[in-house]
Amino acid sequence: MTIFYFTSTGNCLAVAKKIGNGNTKLISIPQVVGKPDLAFADDVIGVVFPIYGFGLPKMVKKFLETAKLQGAYMFAIGTYGNLPGACMLNVQRFAEQHGYKFDYAESLLMVDNYLPGFNINDQVAKLPEKRVDENLARIIADIQNRKTLDATAGIGWRFMTAMIKRGENLLVNGKQGQRYEVNQNCNQCGTCSKVCPAGNITVSDKVIFADQCEGCLGCVHLCPKNAIHLRHEKNEVRWRNPDVSLKEMIAANNRK
Ligand SMILES: Cc1cc2nc3c(=O)[nH]c(=O)nc-3n(C[C@H](O)[C@H](O)[C@H](O)COP(=O)(O)O)c2cc1C
């Protein structure tokens, strides 16, 4: 089994590790995307990614567009924090447009790391009702049993998802990081640069954001000094999935 994943605060890596159960090749999408002639074959191939704006992170979309994936059984898991929209339905359609098929497409409700919309304290308090472990155990059993599952979404969700994607194309321009505020707690340790899946951050005497930001908020959540802030954040509390260490996040995302 090979599992490709994208993660900014560890939810998807935690899920990939649990599905992989220690004997699976885990490949971080930022480490391979953009390389020429991307082709992977295995008996089982999976992709685990966070749902962004009812859709895919830009980099995951690029990976799914450019990689040739060949598996006898293929699955896609989108983690999300509140509402998945028609993401998984669109991912299955997108794969078919690119010549392969996800036999199983499912979403998994976890902590929402979108700081402009959510307070991490509230998200952590809601964890028991999100039943992450129970839902993940079901997904793992489904994958072990090679179950097939086609995602569905009603017309309302499909419409909302299309509208959000249209708005996002105007708003998401890779320069989001340039609007973050870095305060005096920054000691130029460089962690933000190492956890950035886009290699978009340089640290010298100050933190410089270029224009390839994925908007994943990894730098904001994982700064050891909590020095990076959004102008509109609910509070200063940050999230890293407790099943993933900062070292693992750096190994997954460091592009420098
Ligand atoms: C830019 C951005 C957009 C997001 N959009 C959605 C969304 O549309 N629906 C949702 O339920 N969660 C959304 N989320 C929350 C993440 O999908 C969720 O927290 C995910 O589990 C994070 O996975 P990770 O820790 O592996 O990065 C968004 C998060 C970010 C940073």
Report on the structure:
GO terms for molecular function: iron-sulfur cluster binding; metal ion binding. It holds the Pfam family Fer4_9. Keywords: Iron, Iron-sulfur, Metal-binding. Residues 178-206, 207-233 form the 4Fe-4S ferredoxin-type domain. With 256 residues, this protein is α/β, with parallel strands linked by helices. The protein has two domains: 2-165, Rossmann fold; 176-253, Alpha-Beta Plaits, CATH 3.30.70.20. It contains eleven helices and nine strands. The strands form three sheets. Strands 2-1-3-4-5 form a five-stranded parallel beta sheet, sandwiched between helices. A two-stranded antiparallel sheet has the order 6-9. It is globular, with a radius of gyration of 18 Å. The protein starts with a strand and ends with a helix. The relative contact order is 0.17. Bound molecules: flavin mononucleotide. Flavin mononucleotide (FMN) is lined by residues 7-12, 50-54, 79-84, 110-114, 215-217, 241.
Task: Provide tags for this entry.
Alpha-Beta Plaits; 9 strands; 11 helices; five-stranded parallel sheet; alpha/beta; iron-sulfur; 256 residues; binds flavin mononucleotide; Rossmann fold
Layout of secondary structure:
Layout: E1 2-5, H1 11-20, E2 25-28, H2 29-32, E3 39-50, H3 58-66, E4 68-80, H4 87-97, E5 104-109, H5 120-125, H6 127-130, H7 132-144, H8 155-171, E6 181-182, H9 191-195, E7 201-203, E8 207-209, H10 218-222, E9 228-229, H11 246-253
Parallel strand pairs: 1-2, 1-3, 3-4, 4-5
Antiparallel strand pairs: 6-9, 7-8
This protein binds flavin mononucleotide (FMN).
The site of flavin mononucleotide (FMN) has 26 residues, from helix 1 and strand 4.
